[in-house]
Amino acid sequence: MSEQFDVVIIGGGPAGYVAAIRSAQLGFKTACVEQRGALGGTCLNEGCIPSKALLHDSEVFEHISHEGREHGIIASGLKADYKAMQTRKKGVVENLTKGIEGLFKKNKVTYVIGHGIVMGKGEVAVKKEGGTPESIKAKHIIIATGSEVAKLPGVEVDGKRILTSREALELTEVPGSLVVIGAGVIGLELGSVFRRLGAQVTVVEFMDHITPGQDAEVSRQFQKILEKQGMQFKLASKVTGAKSSPKNVELTVEAKESGKTETLKADYVLVAVGRKAHTDKLGLTESGVAVDERGRIIVDDHFRTNVEGIYAIGDVIAGPMLAHKAEEDGVACVESIAGQKAHVDYNLVPGVIYTHPEVASVGKTEEKLKAEGVQYKVGKFPFLANSRARAMGQTDGFVKIIADANSDEVLGVHIIGPQAGTMIMEAALAMEFKASAEDIARTCHSHPDLHEAIKEAALAVAGRAIHI
Question: Which of 324, 447, 451, 467 is catalytic?
Answer without folding.
Answer: 447
